[in-house]
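Posting this for the archive.
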Amino acid sequence: MTMLLAELPGKITLVILAIILVIILALLAIVGMFFKIWLRAKVSGAPVGFGTLVAMWLRKVPNSLIVDSRIAASKAGLILSTDQLEAHLLAGGDVAQVVLALIAAEKAGITMSFDRACAIDLAVKGTGKTVLEAVRTSINPKVIDCPNPTSGKDKIEAVARDGISLKVRARVTVRTNLDRFVGGATEETVVARVGEGIVTSIGSAASHKDVLENPDNISKLVLGKGVDAATAFEIISIDIADVDVGVNIGAKLQTEQAEADKQVAQAKAEVRRAAAVANEQEMQARTQEMRATVVEAEAQIPQAMAEAFRNGNLGVMDYTKYKNLIADTKMRDSIAGEGGETSGEDPSV
C-alpha cells in the first residue's frame, strides 16, 4: 500500500490519505457515539452489535430505549430481540410499559406472551390506561363502585313486588382477564350489568323485607347470571355495601291512579252538566216559541170576531156574553189569587 502511494503523484496521494483519514474519523465517531450503549448492553448480558445500533439510528429509533428495555427483560429472564421491540415501537406502542408488564406477569406467575402484551398496549392507547395497569389489576384485584360515582347517582333504586322501593349500593371486586382484554367489554359494561341484575333481583322479591333480611341473595343472583361474560374482567365478588328503604311506589301509583280516575269522572260529570244546561236552554227556547205562537193566535181572535160580525155569524148579544165571560174569569182568578196568598189555601178549592 505504501509502495503504491509512493508511486502516485504527490497531490493524489494527499487526497487518498485525506479520504482514509475521514473514514477512520467517521468510524471513530460512530464508535464513540454508540460505545457507551454497546458496552452497557455487553456487560448486562444483552449484547447488541454496532451494526444494529447504527441501523436503529438511521431508522430514527431511540436505541437507548430499546437497549435499556432489552436489558431489563434480560435481567428478568425474558428473551426479547431488538427487532421485536423496534417493531412495537414503530407501530406506536410503549416499549417500556410492555417490558414492565411482561416482567410483572413473569414474577406473578402469569403466562403472557410478548404479542399479547403488545396487543393490549395498542388496545389501551389513548384511553389513559396502560398494559402494566392491566397486569397489576390481574395480580391485585380492584374494586368498582356500582353505580359509578361519576354518573351522578349514589345508589340504584328498584321496587319489590309489594310496592316498596329499595336503594342499593354495591361494590364489585374484579381482576383483569388478560385473555379477553383485547375486544372485551369495559368497566362501564360490568357496572351496567350488575345494576341490571340488582334491579331484577329486587323486582323479583315478594317483599322488600326479604331483601333486607337476605341482601346476599342479590349477589348470588347477579353472579349466577354471568355478568362478566365477554368482558375484560373476571368478577371475584359482589358485596352489597348499603341498602335503604325508599318510598312506597305502589301506594303512590295507586294514589295517582285514583286522582286520575277522579279527574276523568269530574270531566264526564261536567260533560253531562253542560248537556243538561244545553237541554234546558233548548226547552226555554221552545217555550218562548210556543208562547209566541199563542200570542200570535190571540192576536188573530179580534180579526176573526170582526170577520164574524161582517158575515153575520156573531151578534151583539154573543159578543156581550163573550166579554162578560172574560170579565168573570179574570175576577175569579184574582179572587183565587188573593185567597191563596192570605189563607194559604189551595186556590183551586
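The radius of gyration is 54 Å. Residues 341-349 have pLDDT under 50 and may be disordered.
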